[in-house]
Amino acid sequence: MTSQSSLGAGLRTRSVASGAALQIDLGDQFLNYDVSDGLKERVKKLLGEHLEEGHRTFVLNLEKVGLIDSCGVGLLIAAHHQVAAEGGVLAIVGACPFVMKVLRMMRLDKFLALYPNQERALKALVDPV
After folding, report:
1. Cα separations (Å) of 75 from 60, 72, 89, 127?
2. Domain for residue 129, yes or no?
3. Which tens digits make up the pLDDT trace of 71-91?
4. Which of 30, 44, 57, 82 has its CA 20 to 30 A from that of 36?
């Protein structure tokens, strides 16, 4: 970890893997309608700024998220599309069993790069064998 910044309630970024990836930590327990709209815009802006700087590997940490609805799923899909459109990759890590169940029910586990933790994601994305 080389740098860290807080971007308001519910969002923190830090450089990981010696700067090879940027991790975004979501601090809200709920990724639903009540928080998704404002958070979606902040995530979009954050990703846009870092994509402009040349970053292409992102880790979205959902460890604190215990509940997700369609608005939260929309945030994940939008972030994935934004990064993929610039040739990057977005890994989602730390999803609890409920969030994983929702993503699997929607078959998004076939579409999104889901990993149980940061270590596994970085091994697959930054240090592929």
Report:
1. 11, 5, 15, 27
2. no
3. 999 999 999 999 999 999 999
4. 57
pLDDT tens for 8-33 read: 557 899 999 999 999 999 988 889 88
d(CA 23, CA 3) in angstroms, rounded, equals: 10
HEC profile of the chain: CCCEEECCCCEEEEEECCCCEEEEEECCCEECHHHHHHHHHHHHHHHHHHHHCCCCEEEEECCCCCEECHHHHHHHHHHHHHHHHCCCEEEEECCCHHHHHHHHHCCHHHCCEEECCHHHHHHHHCCCC
Question: What is the domain range of residue 33?
Answer: 4-124
Q: Domains in the chain: how many in total?
A: 1
CATH code of 74's domain: 3.30.750.24
